[in-house]
Amino acid sequence: MGGGYVFGSARSGQTAMVALVLVVGSFFAGYIFGNNAPIYIPQASSSNSTSSSSPSPSGPSDFANRIELTYRRTPLVIPQRGVNVCPLEFNEYIPCHNVTYVQQLLPSLNLSRREELERHCPPLEQRLFCLVPPPKDYKVPIRWPTSRDYVWRSNVNHTHLAEVKGGQNWVHEQGELWWFPGGGTHFKHGAPEYIQRLGNMTTNETGDLRSAGVEQVLDVGCGVASFAAYLLPLGIQTMSFAPKDGHENQIQFALERGIGAMISAIATKQMPYPSSSFDMVHCSRCRVDWHENDGVLIKEVNRLLRPNGYFVYSAPPAYRKDKDFPLIWDKLVNLTTAMCWKLISRKVQTAIWVKQDDQACLMKNAELELITICDSKDVSKPSWKVPLRDCVDISENTPKASYPTSLRKIGISEDEFTLDTNFWREQVNRYWELMKVNRTEVRNVMDTNAFVGGFAAAMSSYPVWVMNVVPATLNDTLSGIYQRGLTGAYHDWCEPFSTYPRTYDLLHADKLLSHYQNHGEGCLLEDIMLEMDRIIRPQGFIIIRDEESIISKVQDLAPKFLWEVETRELQDKYKKAETVLFCRKKFWAIV
């Protein structure tokens, strides 16, 4: 993920109220936002296939799309009037984290391992095939960096977190806004103080996390992602995740704020990230039982950590002496010692281990049958839908580099890497010229087929963060992306992504659609376009580069998805003319 400017420290109450007035005033002045008026689809369209020619009380309507709950059918046929619109109650539809579907699966799931929190995609015929509408009174999101501290209440209209976590300063209601003071369960006085304390603990009071070698962090059970937000001033990139559980909409809050996050859970399968990719894994009251099941979950942390990386554990077993916390602590100490981790600090409710780069220790403990060493063949597989392994892998110490060595192993030469890097630097500058928007209008970006991360690297000079997605059906270039200081995840676009609707301002798709054109039902161009529409924000951009036949088909279909579309002639990597589609999702709403 690319970084950007953020405010330096937590606000005082007085400053917060001044900012609150500024945000509300700026909205009405059109300063923090662009055009906030949606085009309306009247409820009458659900029973009338013709478009309404008369304007609604709040705005014009010229859509033929019908409001109708529609499921995916085979063969897939798009109505001439356009893709149907889902009823308003489906405004937060997340296909692979659908509570109703998961409830059907409960008898077959391992609830003791929290398998119900993982991805469970319904069969094709049970997936909706209609455009997900915005909620009532949805507004164009507040722009970064103001959005770090304030978002519109109507965009995430859920009060549970404010009610149960307000005392820990996760989030507070402020009129039409949600205010995020920067607190958390273990840092209710603010993330900056907590982050500095972690820096002191990792450097023996001599520096901060960055000087401790921390550049990429995995935040487990991230809440509203304030920890990640306040790491940005240190130039530290964070992959934040949390499940869709009782802390309702925590990831939606994070993304609405403009902080990189995704829905996920560490339960029975490997996380969708490469081995040896993070300098720190952070758990602050993350509600994960690391000590259970022979430590299979903490062995997954070991897989994800780079040699000499840190595991930060801020939870009751690290400091409480009552109940069964001492027993849990002893189990954790035994597990981490067996993996040759070293406890370097334990104070103020936090314990920190370092994963030592000590292969001799691991081999000795394997001989003593304290651990099992993973088969090297298993380690090389992309971690997508891979069951957790009850073993410890011997991590290769591959330092970050301008040309990641892991790419050479899969046949990507340094010349090809350099060509890609230079090409996207030129193209990204052209994109901003052609989009004709202020830099602050784009914050959340996804590269749906990231290759080696050249697009994200070029975006790093802008105030955005980028989710680099590497399709699980392609070569594993994600390790190389992490080695160049970026972050991302594996995914298969035959399935919906693990995020809320309306979470990205820009989607970039280079040769993605042609890659999936022969992958069968569920992977059709129309299926992927529907998912793009679900996760892009109103007025968000979708930039598509692909074969001419694909470009032509998307151009024909785009109006049926309520996208505006323009073509631009650019050049490909080899200086040949290439037609690029710039699609923009219309801001529409149901009335």
UniProtKB/TrEMBL annotation:
Domain of life: Eukaryota
Lineage: Eukaryota, Viridiplantae, Streptophyta, Embryophyta, Tracheophyta
Name this polypeptide is given: Methyltransferase
Top EC class of this enzyme: transferase
A GO molecular-function descriptor: methyltransferase activity
Annotated localization: Endomembrane system; Membrane
Family: Belongs to the methyltransferase superfamily.
Species this chain originates from: Brassica carinata
Annotated stretches, region: Disordered: 44-63
